[in-house]
Design brief:
The protein is mainly β. The strands form 5 sheets. The protein has a 30-stranded mixed β-sheet that branches. Strands 9-10-14-15-13 form a 5-stranded mixed β-sheet. Strands 1, 4, 7 and 8 form a 4-stranded mixed β-sheet that branches. A hairpin with a 5-residue loop joins strand 34 and strand 35.
């Protein structure tokens, strides 16, 4: 779009108009500083700083935070000695002079890395599986051995607050309108299909999962339910790597990764090759009503078994220009072919029981795709601790081919109808982003954050439909009324500002506002139903928290969120592979708005006991929901529409406890009440739902370990009905060979059940439908994980985070 770079610069200038300088507070006891790696210039986190006077008397002790910043108080002006220690670094001692008349700020302190420092280190403690950090809950997936050989979907299934169904669709408190980030970056593959994308991320690559239910103004406003940020493992040693191979009756996986670090360069390479087999069976019985009386009855059986080869590759290159500046280049690519072949038997009867139609159907369907994200970032840290500027740009090209070929044949007869639908989608997306952090006070208790962002999306979908009829069904003729070229653009211009304040008596507050302008433009080559819209959204956010003591924290948050439709929701190319169940996009969709408030309490005990409890309330207006309608011939059409508002409230509990030095236990309970209301369709549906999970691990002698996981979901209310209960469970045993750095993991998923059943009920004045689904998930998996080179250490990096697009659910 013309003027886009100028508009981005204008937004950046709007939110970054000044550098604020601190006021002297008249104190002579406050001292602040920062610790960095002398080679990479990166902050050294959790370094210990001991302060003594010239006589060796201890004056103060502290440690550096996540940004390498530390602070302490001295009783008076004078000469002091600092001794700084951190694992993997040489001890650093230096003298400092604290002058009277105000706080003292030390110059950046550099620590020299020590080679070979970790060769004989034995880890005797672990981070908790679940932790609370400001504004989020963190699940430390690297501590969970049942994740070996799995995918990101398996990891998210165990994270607090989240829920993952058998098809890999993720929800927060029953809502799938959420955004999933990878190291703070939103991938084009996540926009296409989150469930597919999660299957492409190996579980062993994941270090932790951040669950953010009330995102601040810093995050894009998209994602009504919240934001999930998956943090992957990074390397910092000279050379190290991992090769993981997993084999089961349902999947085969190869995951290589390695890291190289030399001088100012850090290179991380990850690969993923995966073949996944999915088997499902469904029975459908739907009765259509006319004037309140049964009209026609449809009975169907559907059988699916498909194997999907797919993969991804990721390379990240970081270069430290100097001690304060870093450049980063990231290239991620994904590819795959996801078939969705099925065999369908259909029987349609009238109200008297007479057969109207009876036929068998073979559907050959697949989606093949290739896409990538290319991003370039620059990060600059200034002399003042905490002052930072980040600039990012990302280009995401992708192409997708979706094809189905369906044939209908009467019982014991030849094919009488064929249909082919071929769609080609090309997507080009540019993102420009700038973020700035400025401490306003010297003690770091008052901080300003601001930034601007522009997202430019252009999508072109070319779809052609052809059909063949008896007596020559193999002669396919174009269906011009169902063939077209759909071009769609979505441009988002955003800016935000935030203030963070740490106050006396352990009070903390932050408030922010985000402004987003969205421009939608769609056109067709062969029909006159073009559309254009422009809308603005003001997004306020606020959080207030109080640390009651060293173990307890209480916080209250509010946020406003929006959900924009994407091309998958708008595309009018109807999927009629099953002529009795058709799905189609809706070009008239408008964004939905949600207001959410949350009150949370966290307790962390010295024994390792942790609990987080959250009460939440959310009101969604103009809600985007799936609507199913039927006609007098028993045909259903499903599409997304703005037809409902809903209110939701509930309770989340997450807890972990160390029963002994060898046994840990963690679990989650989510209870929520949903209330749907649509005046247009005269539908009111409400009810309670809950899900529970528990995860237990036990360490045995001789480097053996055991772990078990179980999950249960109660009946869940939907807009037009409800889903029945479902369950999932797994067991794992691990054997480590420390000398060889090899880990063997044997796991079993749902071993005592041939399949997992679940019913989906849809109910309206015009029809009543029951979907009886069987998901064949029973599996036994062997995973071998070999680490070579030196040990991995985690490292964070800045990346684009396009969490503003509503994803397309799989299944």
């Amino acid at each position: 779009m013309k003027g886009s770079p100028q508009r981005f610069l204008s937004l950046l200038a709007f939110v970054l108009p000044f550098f604020v300088f601190a006021q002297q507070n008249g104190q002579v006891v406050a001292v602040t500083g920062a610790v960095s790696d002398s080679t990479t210039g990166k902050p050294v986190t959790y370094a210990t700083i001991n302060v003594t006077d010239n006589n060796g008397k201890e004056i103060a002790a502290t440690y550096s935070d996540e940004k390498g910043v530390f602070k302490f108080n001295v009783p008076a002006a004078g000469e002091y000695i600092l001794e700084i220690t951190s694992v993997g670094y040489a001890i650093r001692s230096l003298g400092v002079t604290v002058k009277a008349g105000g706080p003292s700020r030390l110059s950046n302190i550099l620590l020299e890395p020590k080679s070979g420092e970790l060769a004989e280190v034995t880890v005797i403690s672990r981070r908790r599986l679940v932790e609370q950090k400001p504004g989020m809950l963190v699940y430390n997936a690297e501590n969970d051995l049942t994740n070996k050989g799995g995918s990101a979907a398996d990891v998210l299934r165990k994270a607090p607050v989240l829920n993952v169904d058998a098809q890999g669709n993720v929800s927060i408190r029953g809502n799938t309108n959420l955004k999933i980030l990878i190291n703070g970056k939103y991938s084009g593959q996540m926009a296409r299909s989150p469930a597919d994308a999660l299957n492409m991320i190996p579980a062993d690559l994941i270090r932790s999962v951040e669950v953010i239910t009330t995102p601040s103004a810093k995050y894009d406003a998209e994602g009504a339910a919240g934001v999930i940020n998956i943090i992957t493992k990074k390397g910092r040693k000279n050379f190290s790597g991992t090769l993981e191979v997993a084999v089961s009756n349902l999947e085969q996986v190869i995951n290589p990764r390695f890291t190289v670090n030399r001088d100012k360069w850090n290179i991380n390479v990850n690969g993923h090759l995966h073949r996944l087999t999915q088997k499902e069976e469904s029975g459908i019985e739907r009765t259509t009503f006319e004037n309140g009386a049964p009209s026609v009855n449809l009975q169907q059986t559907i059988r699916k078994k498909n194997s999907a080869p797919h993969g991804s590759a990721d390379i990240v290159i970081d270069y430290s220009v100097d001690s304060t500046s870093e450049l980063s280049l990231g290239i991620t690519s994904w590819f795959g072919r996801w078939p969705d072949n099925s065999n369908v038997s259909s029987l349609l009867r009238n109200s008297g029981g007479a057969i109207l139609e009876e036929y068998d159907q073979a559907i050959n369907s697949y989606s093949g795709y290739l896409g990538s994200d290319l991003n370039l970032g620059y990060n600059k840290k200034f002399k003042r601790p905490g002052q930072e500027l980040t600039l990012l740009v990302q280009f995401s090209p992708a192409r997708d081919k979706s094809d189905y070929n369906t044939s209908l044949a009467k019982k014991f007869s030849d094919v009488y109808y064929r249909e082919q639908n071929v769609g080609y989608t090309n997507n080009r997306e540019w993102t420009f982003q700038g973020d700035y952090v400025q401490p306003i006070s010297k003690n770091g208790k008052f901080i300003y954050e601001g930034g601007a962002k522009v997202i430019l999306r252009n999508v072109r979908n070319n779809y052609d439909v052809a059909a063949g009829y008896a007596p020559q069904p193999d002669v396919l003729l174009p269906v011009s009324t169902r063939s077209d070229i759909f071009t769609y653009s979505q441009d988002v211009y955003a800016a935000y500002s935030m203030l963070k304040l740490s106050m006396k008596n352990n009070w903390y507050a932050e408030a922010g506002a985000r402004f987003e302008e969205t421009v939608l433009d769609g056109s067709f080559a062969n029909q006159s139903s073009d559309f254009y819209s422009r809308f603005n959204n003001f997004i306020p956010t606020a959080t207030v928290s109080k640390r009651l003591d060293d173990a307890q924290t209480l916080s209250l948050s509010y946020t406003k969120r929006i959900t924009r439709p994407y091309i998958w929701d708008l595309n009018p190319n109807a999927n009629a592979s099953d002529p009795k169940n058709i799905s189609v996009g809706n070009t008239a969709l408008r964004p939905e708005l949600a207001h959410q408030a949350e009150l949370s309490y966290a307790f962390t005990g010295e024994s390792g006991f942790f609990v987080n409890a959250s009460l939440f309330w959310k009101q969604t207006d103009n809600s985007i929901v799936d609507i199913t309608r039927t006609d007098e011939n028993g045909v259903s059409v499903i599409s997304k529409e703005n037809l409902a508002g809903n209110t939701q409230y509930g309770l989340n509990l997450s807890s972990s406890v160390r029963l002994s030095d060898l046994t840990t236990l963690n679990g989650n309970i989510n209870v929520n009440h949903l209330d749907f209301n649509s005046d247009e369709l005269k539908i009111m549906n409400k009810g309670w739902g809950a899900d529970f999970n528990i995860n237990a691990s036990h360490k045995l002698p001789a480097n053996f370990g055991l772990q078990a996981f179980g999950e249960y979901n109660t009946r869940i209310v939907t807009f037009q009905g409800h889903n029945s209960n479902r369950y999932y469970y797994s067991f794992a045993a691990k054997k480590e060979l420390p000398a060889s750095k090899i880990i063997f993991t044997l796991s079993a998923v749902n071993p005592f059940n041939k399949y997992n059943p679940q019913q989906v009920i849809l109910n309206s004045p015009s029809f009543y439908a029951v979907f009886s689904n069987r998901y064949y998930t029973r599996a036994v998996k062997l995973t071998v994980n070999w680490e070579f080179g030196q040990m991995f250490q985690n490292r964070e990096r800045k990346k684009i985070s396009n969490e503003d697009v509503k994803g397309m659910n799989k299944g």
